[in-house]
Design goal:
219 residues; alpha/beta; Rossmann fold; 2 domains; four-stranded parallel β-sheet; two-stranded antiparallel sheet
Length: 219
């Protein structure tokens, strides 16, 4: 997917989720590098930097996108030829995307250990990391139920419900304001993270703090 198409897809919420956004940004830069037709390294680098700004502007609050884009252009200043630039950008993007996917899988494996038979799980929005945890536990044969919030205004929870339902997971969609009502029966809460600060605070989709407060109250 080219840069402009990727930017529009991120802005319109067609591409959602921290990891997906980051991988899309890296892939868009790789696409630009692959299809650059010029012979001037300076022009090439200028085009990459312009593309970088466009991509970052598509979701300024997404720290993961910043990470993916900057990982893709790391070392660009040392490149002297068009071929070197192209190889560096495409290789960096491939490495970042693979590392991102590997991280999601690892999170799933570690998180699934927290799930036990009989658990009632609550999740929020549409996090690939949270979904990885739930899917991994389900594939291990564990028996549990899941509640997913609708996650307005974009209703990403519907994506979560559809995804887990196809997997065979027992899942129920609830409106956001029903969180406190169902929390009495919930045993585990899994959410994604747009970023985690150096002192351990989690920043995520609006409504996440509501889940945390309700979960703490119901402990």
């Amino acid at each position: 997917m080219d840069v402009d198409t990727t930017v529009e897809a991120i802005r319109s919420m067609e591409i959602r989720g921290a990891g997906r956004i980051a991988r899309a940004g890296a892939s868009a830069l790789a696409d630009y590098a692959t299809n650059f037709k010029g012979n001037d390294p300076k022009e090439f680098i200028a085009g990459i930097m312009d593309s970088k700004e466009k991509i970052l502007g598509s979701r300024p609050t997404a720290v993961s996108l910043w990470n993916g884009v900057h990982a893709t252009i790391r070392g660009l200043d040392s490149c002297e030829t068009v071929d070197h630039i192209r190889t560096l950008v495409t290789t960096n993007a491939e490495r970042f995307n693979q590392a991102s996917l590997d991280a999601v899988r690892t999170i799933g494996e570690i998180g699934a250990k927290r799930i036990q038979d009989g658990d009632v799980i609550l999740t929020h929005c549409n996090s690939s990391a949270a979904l990885s945890v739930i899917k991994t536990a389900f594939r291990q044969g564990k028996k549990f139920r899941v509640y997913a919030t609708e996650s307005r205004p974009w209703r990403q929870g519907i994506l979560t419900v559809n995804d887990l339902a196809k997997e065979g997971v027992d899942i129920t969609l609830i409106i956001d304001s029903a969180v406190r009502s169902v929390m009495k029966s919930v045993t585990k809460v899994f959410v994604g993270a747009d970023t985690i600060t150096s002192h351990g605070s989690l920043v995520n989709k609006i409504g996440t703090s509501q889940l945390a407060l309700a979960a703490n109250e119901a402990r």
